[in-house]
Specification:
174 residues; 5 helices; alpha+beta; globular; seven-stranded mixed β-sheet
């Protein structure tokens, strides 16, 4: 499937029935190690438990097929800080705006709650496009932890202060 600019992804809540699709396209993303995929699926499964409050998930579909997902939640022991835990898009539609749409919707939903959004990723060369993706959406590098994931694999921590809808409205009035 090739995405075009004329197609818009539909955002929707995820259900346990989506697990297989998320696992399939996550395994097709060469950057993810098998153990990382297992953690992502564990977080996804936890998000479906009605009593949990740690994770919010959202899916994106094109032509009735799930092609992306995002997961975020409040960072423990903080006030107003949220982590973006996972965002993944099927390689067949990467570059079509699905990831941007998912991140923008997360930010919209957090606009009145979050004072800071944190994203962590790898510093390996292969993750250059991932880091560029975050920077292109207004995230800035706040820190690098050398050799965090493995020898030679730094952790790169991005942060963004989301715009409050009220602040944007006030700025437009000036």
């Amino acid at each position: 499937m090739t995405a075009t600019a004329t197609r818009q992804a539909l955002l929707r809540p995820l259900t346990p029935a989506d697990r297989g699709a998320i696992e399939a396209f996550s395994r097709a993303i060469p950057l993810f190690r098998p153990d990382e995929i297992e953690i992502a699926l564990e977080v996804l499964d936890t998000s479906f438990k009605p009593e949990q409050r740690d994770y919010t998930t959202l899916g994106a579909e094109l032509d009735g097929r799930l092609v992306g997902w995002i997961c975020w939640g409040p960072t423990p022991c903080t006030l107003g800080t949220y982590d973006m835990y996972w965002v993944a898009v099927d390689p067949s539609v990467q570059g079509a705006g699905v990831g941007s749409l998912l991140v923008a919707e997360m930010e919209r939903r957090l606009a009145d709650q979050a004072r800071l959004i944190v994203v962590e990723t790898s510093g390996r060369r292969e993750y250059g496009p991932t880091r560029a993706f975050y920077m292109g959406r207004g995230y800035r590098i706040a820190a690098k932890v050398p050799d965090f994931y493995a020898a030679g694999d730094d952790q790169v921590i991005f942060v963004k202060t989301p715009a409050s809808p009220r602040a944007e409205t006030s700025a437009k009035r000036r």
